Fold each of these.
Amino acid sequence: MPVTVRSYAKINLGLYIGPRRADGFHDLRTVYQTIALHDVLRLEVVRGAGIEIRSKDPRVPRDATNTCYRMAERAMEALKARGKVIIEIEKRLPVRGGLGGASGNAVAALLALELALKKRLPGAEKLRIAAEVGSDLPLFLIGGTALGVGRGEEVYPLPDFPSVPCVIATPEIGVSTPKAFSDWDALMAASSAENPSQANKLTLSSTSDRINTFSRVISAWLNGSQLKTGKAVSGVPVRNGRGRAETLLLDLVRTGIENDFEQVVFPQYPALRDVKNAIKKSGAYYASLSGSGSSLYGLFSTRAAAEKAAAKLSTTGVPAVATSTLTRQQYWKRF
């Protein structure tokens, strides 16, 4: 019998890019947050061998380049299982949109495979396999709010915020993540061009400084002493009860966290900067590019405000939808 699961999306609450590592990846710091938008994935294991990917969306690869394909290969081996794995992906999320659609699909395939075979892998083993397949896959084995470090594959659960209304705008622009990283490296090199003899040293220093800055901001934000004083890091009064947690989310974004990719993506795609500004003008208390884009999001105080903003964006030709963030408990309950 086929197993049907939801494959949720994510946004990045801040994303800082560090220096390029020896393995070719960059060190990153980000806060991941799962949201209620999702794809639908159906999986079954039948007689035979191999992996078959099905999708009505022509942009979804059907071969071994698909993250679901690579995940299923590794998972079948780890589970010591036999059979042909058929994975049908119903795409509702944009492809290459910065919402982690392909990564979420792969983790959904892993969890659906466990259900189909009635076998389970240890949690640490699943995280290891997920990290091998892609950088932000492990997030989807955690859900809710999580700190991402390393190249994004190291994830640590953070205290969840209450569900917050948000708007996701998905302009029909394809942004290449490898190119965005390359453009970031070029930007850092250019910033050091005035002193060629120290260029590499300065580039490494500037990118490392940004990583350290983000780490300090997050550490200070998480520090329990901020609650004892009645004020959070940014000076916002901290309320009691549910309101206190909502204030802490507002406090996090008021610390000045940002997405470094905006510095290289917006100059190449000015329309994306315009969409971000439109989201902010619609009443969002925080707006940002998600990942390397091209999706953008805004956080709102009420569902009504988010729905109004999404409708306004849609009338200007920008696809947008009102949704909400998902706590860890909501993520797994709805999965």
Amino acid sequence: MSVTVRSFAKINLGLRIGALRPDGFHELRTVYQTIALHDIVRVSVRRGSGIEIRCDDSRVPTDESNTCYLVVERAMVELKASGRVVIEIEKRLPVQGGLGGASGNAVAAVLALERVLKKEMSAPERLRIAAEVGSDLPLFLVGGTVLGVGRGEEVYPVPDLPAIVCVVATPEIGVSTPKAFADWDLLVSREPEVSGKLTLPAASDRMVEFGRVLSAWLGSQSQIKQKQDKHKSGRALSGVPVSKGRGRAETLLLDLVRTGIENDFEQVVFPKYPELREVKRVLERAGALYASLSGSGSATYGLFAAREAAEKAAARLRTDGVPATATTTLTRPQYWKKIFD
């Protein structure tokens, strides 16, 4: 028996880099958002032992270094199961592109494995194993709009941003995440000598600032939803008209943009890869309400109010030789429905 599932991608709605931790990781604050772009993962369990990974993309490791291997190995022990696990990965997402492809594959493999074995781990056990393997894995056990703290592995579901059209550009540029972190540390350490004064707030202050920004945004979500749910006639309790012709997704997104939320990696990645900065500019000029690097890149995305504008932006990028696709973000219910659909 085999089970086939979709393995969805993520983007980062803002990413704040904090201080280097004793464990060698950086403290992070980010809002993850799952999107509809995906790989396909198929899992079967046969006679024998061990884990076999198959993938036609030569850039995907098929040995013990593969994230799927690491998480399935732990899951088999936790489930007290035996047999030879075969994991087939059909890659549609870029490798090392900032979309969480490898992490999503690993979580998809575990979910498929449980269905094959007809056994389930508890939610806390799944999260524990995922966090042991990698920082991005736990978000795929939540889906939708997710707050990530710690090194990104501590995840908390927040009220979903309604589904909105998204253009994802995937330039064929390999950005090393460890190198991007190292460049960030160098930027922070050299800031005083370069500019004569420290312009970046202290790491702890940056974390607090991000928390305030997120709290303000979540508060606006609640207020807007109440207004639109209770006053569909177009007026709020205060007598202030609710914007007509603007969906809740667009309104919330504009509120998020006004907070000044951004991805810190852009400060060190864009100077080295100016073509990525240009991709962001193309998206903004095409009408994106918000555009950003995802993770450390190279994937760059833009969120749009209308499908037509998004399709035109994607076409423009493809004309320039940049692979780009118009897709949508996924709410938490959509994410869990489509994984197994």
Amino acid sequence: MDGILPRLRFAATGRIKRQLKRWIRQRKDAGLSRRSLIILNLLDGQSVSEVARTLHVSRSTMYRVARRFRDHGMAGLVDRREDNGQRKVDDDYLGLLHEVVQASPPSFGYTRPTWTRELLAKVMRRQTGVAVCLSTMSRALKRIGARRGRPRPVVRCPWSKSSRDKRLRMIRRMLQGVGREEVAVYADEVDIHLNPKIGSDWMVPGQQKELLTPGQNQKRYVAGAMDATTRRLTWVEGEKKNSMLFIGLLHALRRAHPHARVIHVILDNYGIHSSAITQAVLSAMNGRIVLHFLPPYCPQHNRIERLWEDLHAQVTRNHTCRTMGQLMQRVRTFLRRRSRNATKAAARRTGRRAA
């Protein structure tokens, strides 16, 4: 570097320094900005060790950048990868990678059930003939918007597609035909465990957070109903997930909607919804509450399921409550806040339509 620095300083005209500063300020090419900053610091008289330590780059990088600037001037700082020929990771490669990620390794003859970058690179090389390193694969995955996440477990509906679609159409027509004296709600139950559900969280390198659990688990259950129009919530709590819990919800719905001629309840096929005691209570209500059962194993069509997901994400997952009383108080606070916000949002929508 001793033979390079005098030449660098000799070549340091005001025009060159201004151009280097412009390249440093631009954000489209971080590599060009960093190389320009290296040269500008060297031109200002800083030593190689000082610049390397300040910019967190190796001495070999310093030598390489300085030699390219010495031999080619400003053009030596520009990324020269466009001279390498056709890009490996082009649109066709990314399109195929998008399809491969959506599948699973067994579809390509591997026993491993989940993807790794190494396996993706191997499969893509077999499919396209293009070999890429792991860092390139990481950038390619980022470009197609791929992310690491947890799959959603599902159970296939035992009904035929025509029967399932017919039932869903009936429910949609019911919702569209709900009159002013009628109410439609989505209903379901959720389990609350004192032993927290474990979920992902941010951690710093070298750290794995510990979650102190009470040890002996306790359970409570919430049966809830969400208004299909206003998203207002009605719920009851219980120590057992049985017919009495669901019947308590039915009575709570009658109290919450005293002027409704009919309350339509959309729900799943869980046994407590159709038990003998539940049927007896419904008969005593003289048609005031009508149940509309979704096809089996179709939770995505029950809108209250999203509420339970939010409840777990914001309250029960990784919680630190030591008693069930503390945990249930947080559950109630969450449900009250969600119901209050939904009611306000519905009032604003009604006001806009009236205007």
